Amino acid sequence: MMDSCHSRRDFLKSVGLGAASLALPRFALGGVQPARKPNIVFVLADDLGYAELGCYGQEKIETPNLDRLAAQGMRFTQHYSGSPVCAPSRCTLLTGKHTGHAYIRDNYEIGGWGPDDPEGQLPLPEGTTTLGTLLQQQGYATCAIGKWGLGGPDSTGHPNQQGFDHWYGYLCQRVAHNYYPTHLWRNDRKHVLEGNK
């Protein structure tokens, strides 16, 4: 849990050092070869509460696969959303900035709701330090899958411009509101879902 008076730099420094400590090889005494960097898979689900998984105490709904991942990995017990709405919550997660200092502070729409309206929300600025860029600096190949909402096609906020080598999912969070979306994005290419027109 981070005290609100910590600066963005302090937070990113700690996140960067945390990622580096996981990613950097460890040397044993006597010059033994460095250990392999661990794979990092971070699963975040929109609108999933803390106690809705078995690994956090849920007894009514079975979540065996996520429970197994938690048992073999790491559980966060003091992790919470940085904002009550989509885009600023993801912005705080990726940049380490408090919503009062973050560039994305609301679900600001670039386009409208029509099928021909531009897609995307207010984009992250060019040069933003994100978890993706920090991991790339440590030699990781990075991928994000799901809902973005931090910049549409051809914007500075596109995931491929913000530290992710591969992207697949909804660039625009409005598109994610449709149970049968017409398309998803694979990097900078629209992947049309033929059966959903």
Folded structure, characterized:
With 197 residues, the chain is α+β, with helices and mostly antiparallel strands. The protein has a domain at 82-196. It contains 4 helices and 4 strands. It has helices spanning 8-23, 64-72, 86-95, 131-137; strands spanning 143-147, 166-170, 183-186, 189-192. A 4-stranded mixed β-sheet has the order 1-2-3-4, with no helix packed on it. Strand 3 and strand 4 form a beta hairpin. Mean pLDDT is 81; it is low at 1-29.
Could you give a quick summary of the protein structure above?
The protein has 197 residues and is an alpha+beta fold. It has helices at 8-23, 64-72, 86-95, 131-137, and strands spanning 143-147, 166-170, 183-186, 189-192.
Shape estimate:
globular
User: What is the rounded distance between the termini?
Assistant: 44 Å
| Count of DSSP-assigned helices | 4
Query: How much strand?
Result: 5-15%
Helix content: 10-25%
Structural class: alpha+beta
List segments where confidence is low: pLDDT < 50 over at least 5 consecutive residues: 1-29
Tell me about the biggest sheet?
A: 4 strands, mixed
Cα-atom radius of gyration: 18 Å
The total of beta strands comes to 4
Strand order of the largest sheet: 1-2-3-4
Please give the structural blueprint.
Blueprint: H1 8-23, H2 64-72, H3 86-95, H4 131-137, E1 143-147, E2 166-170, E3 183-186, E4 189-192
Parallel strand pairs: 1-2
Antiparallel strand pairs: 2-3, 3-4
List keywords for this structure.
4-stranded mixed β-sheet; 21% helix; 4 strands; 197 residues; globular; alpha+beta; 4 helices; single chain; disordered N terminus
